[in-house]
Amino acid sequence: MENNDPIREKAGPPLVVNKLIINNVTQWHGIGFTHTNHKAMKNLKLLILCQIAALLTYAEHSQNGLNNTAEGSAQLTIYNHSANYKKDSILVICDRYDRSGAGVVYKVYHPQKNHTVTISGIPTGKYYVTIQWMGMHHERMEKVVKIKSGRCETIPVRLGEAQEYAPGHASIPVEHLDFSKLKVVTMK
């Protein structure tokens, strides 16, 4: 029995894949892709739609879980701060302690009248907090802080002495050098 079908000649002999016979590219017999087996095709479509609905429901629940993360806050209490607090700025950088997130908080703050700075909206966890002073003070300090949900963590900050520079009013102390006490002269 000869078959003069040009598609079958190009496709070659039937292939056996997982005990299914594929006669040509457009028809797969045995798994519901034929034109005669509509019930199996409907079942397959229903199965795919159910899986998509389940995935969308799972994705929605996991996204809601991310939005409801617990947050805490931190308050920098500044000691030895000058009365001219308005000329200082503080750059605060919070990096996760486990190195999974850099720059969770990266913002410039200004001290309030009571010499405090409040940082809110920090996700709970352990952080490396870098405090860089800009303005009258030029100090930099790093601390490890643990933020808990719904709590305000107090971070004490001690500053050194600082004076505002005014042209013509700078006092530079006189330094007297004794060349006889240099290391080069006393070397043996």
Short description:
With 188 residues, the chain is of the alpha+beta class. The chain is built from 3 helices and 9 strands; from the N terminus they run αββαβββββββα.
Folded structure, characterized:
The protein is of the alpha+beta class and 188 residues long. The protein has two domains: 6-65, no CATH class; 71-158, Immunoglobulin-like (Sandwich). Helices cover 21% and strands 34% of the residues. The strands form three sheets. The chain has a four-stranded antiparallel sheet, with no helix packed on it. A three-stranded mixed sheet has the order 6-3-9, with no helix packed on it. A hairpin with an 8-residue loop joins β4 (88-96) and β5 (105-109). The radius of gyration is 37 Å and the shape is elongated. The model is unreliable at 15-30 (pLDDT under 50).
